[in-house]
Amino acid sequence: MTKVLVIYAHPETKTYSTTDKFYQQFIGAYREEHPEDEIIEHNVSEYMPFPLNKIAVSIYNKALVNQELNPDEARFQDARQKWVDEFIDSDKYVFVNPMYNLFIPSEMKSYLDMIMQIPDTFHYTKEGTMAGMLHDKKAIHLQTAGGDYHGSTGAPDMSQLDLGHQYIGAILHVMGVDDFTGVYAEGMDHDPANAPEIMADAFQRAEDAARAF
Predict the structure, then answer these.
(1) From the CA atom positions of the chain, what is the Rg in Å?
(2) Which long-range contacts (CB under 8 A, 24 or more apart) does 48-57 make?
(3) Using CA atoms, how far apart are residues 104 and 45, in angstroms rounded to an integer?
(4) For a surface tag, which of 23, 68, 183, 198 has the fewest beta carbons within 10 Å of its beta carbon?
């Protein structure tokens, strides 16, 4: 059975949310196309328990010198490791977020900090280069934005300003995941008069991407 891990970063899921509507179109089509797959969903904007804080840094420093962890550190490490293992055990990744100031929400950044863990998801070679531990996996990024950064509505291509998508792709590449694509719902705030048509087009692209994912 294929395991799909969804990392969703947006607090407004039960009220008005373009991001949530966009995601629901994608995941609904995915379930129809892949009814046997297991889908695990985490909204890290609502629950992100293991940030890169002083406990995480202490654990890292002690690991370098093989020093024993104190009880609080051990509990933190054991609980965090379950999230890392879940990421490793998954076959497909879906990242969902609105664009925040040309980047991803801070909670998604914290999640990526958590799972970027040596030697589980990547390691350094003898030459000092990073090498991924995760292979034969694929990922997709669903992102909403008020402006048009990818020419979705015919506006000039400004994808170089989409630092969040570039960052997720770079992190996944370090971990060995190179099958990565993005689908965007964007430009609704820039062109509110045509927002319904923009979203309808984005919904169709999300459904098409889901069936191919």
Answers:
(1) 18
(2) 48/107, 48/110, 48/111, 49/79, 49/80, 50/76, 50/79, 50/80, 50/83, 50/114, 51/110, 51/113, 51/114, 52/110, 52/113, 52/114, 56/80, 56/114
(3) 11
(4) 68
Helices and strands, counts by H and E, the chain:
6, 7
Strand, helix or coil at 134?
coil
Q: What are the E-state strand segments in the chain?
A: 3-8, 38-43, 92-98, 122-124, 130-132, 138-145, 179-186
pLDDT above 70: residue 14: no
The band of 52, judged by pLDDT with boundaries at 50, 70 and 90, is confident
Q: Is the peptide bond before 119 cis (omega within 30 degrees of 0)?
A: yes
* pTM attached to this predicted model: 0.94
Across the range 200-204, mean pLDDT stands at 95
13 confidence band (pLDDT: 50, 70, 90) = low
